[in-house]
Amino acid sequence: MSSNKKKFTPVQQEYQELAKKHEPKRPIFINCLKAFLVGGLICIIGQAVQEMFVHWAGFDEKKASNPTVAVMIFLSVVLTSLGIYDKIAQWAGAGSAVPVTGFANTMSSAAIEHRSEGLVLGVGGKMFKISGPVIVFGVVAAFVVGIVHLIFNPHAVGGGH
Q1: Which one, of 74, 73, 101, 70, lies nearest residue 88 by Cα?
Q2: Is the full-model pTM beyond 0.90?
Q3: Nearest 10 degrees: CA dihedral of 112, 42, 50, 139?
Q4: Among candidates 128, 59, 68, 119, which has minimal Cα distance to 76?
Q5: Cα 120 to chain centroid, rounded
Q6: What percent of the chain has pLDDT over 90?
Q7: What Cα–Cα distance (Å) separates residue 32 from each residue in 37, 101, 149, 158?
Q8: Distance CA 35, CA 41 (A)
Q9: Which of 155, 102, 152, 154 shows the shortest CA–CA distance to 130?
């Protein structure tokens, strides 16, 4: 017996087992395929946007990356505000959580949902409730990676002389 089942009474355990028998099976392969397709499509769109900046605006690939990210964030926020991104996320699951667009969706949906509570406590406060831990993790991870890089490559300090 698992530790969770020990906390239940015999009737509760019986109910849990009965509920588990009648729980519909999750189509794991289909869910993974949907996530793969939507995540891949988002990445293809991002690549297409970057190629447009390279070919039509005269950017090189490195300089095209920043406006590409801005366009992808803009598209995500627009689709979120129209309620389309949520429908995509319901169908695709984790595939819609591609870092840039998923993060923009998280921030904008929280801001839209809590706008009636005011700009500071509603939009500003609730927007970072979900995404705040992601930002903190990113900053801490970048710091740790920087320290590790410094340890294994001490000549990188001072411009790489």
Answers
A1: 101
A2: no
A3: 60
A4: 68
A5: 24
A6: 43
A7: 9, 19, 35, 46
A8: 10
A9: 102
